[in-house]
Amino acid sequence: MTRLYDLPDSLKDDALTLLGSGVSRQTYVYTPNEKTTVIKLEVSEGWHQNTKEWHVWNAVKRLEGKYKDLKDWFAPCVRISDLGRWLLMGRTYPVSLHELRKELPKVPDVLTDLKVGNWGRLPSGRIVCHDYGTCLAIEHGLYNYRLRPAKWWEGEG
Ligand SMILES: Nc1ncnc2c1ncn2[C@@H]1O[C@H](COP(=O)(O)OP(=O)(O)O)[C@@H](O)[C@H]1O
Ligand SMILES: [Mg+2]
Fold this sequence. Notes:
15% helix, binds magnesium ion, single chain, binds adenosine-5'-diphosphate, Phosphorylase Kinase, domain 1, alpha+beta
């Protein structure tokens, strides 16, 4: 259940357009920048995926040298609320199983959830993961990833 008083002031008076929901979050168009930004609301207790994504994004975006390309696999995080109730993220657009198989035959092994709905295309044209709240980038170490053949799958949730 979305509690509107937890939203940023600029959104309280707007009708929110739901783009999708997953195991713990609902994603809405962020009306001030609707083509480029979404707002993700953490609606289930105990997951803290917004906070995790924020940490992962901040870790990968700082990588330099031969590891600096890792960030190109992640949808960028823009801003987070206290306690991670909401997160602003770059908006992606849906991609098909066919596109993923053709364009991304291999992905970093730290991105473990290869369900089609967790990936999308940024306005730049690049396909990225937009649901990395359970990825292993930090647990496995940012310098330990390998590109592995991707087993893409379609499913609910
Ligand atoms: N950055 C994004 N841009 C566009 N849609 C998104 C974005 N992130 C998530 N979504 C949509 O919202 C749904 C739920 O978000 P997701 O990150 O998968 O939440 P959960 O971690 O709860 O599974 C996704 O399946 C997708 O449809
Ligand atoms: Mg998901």
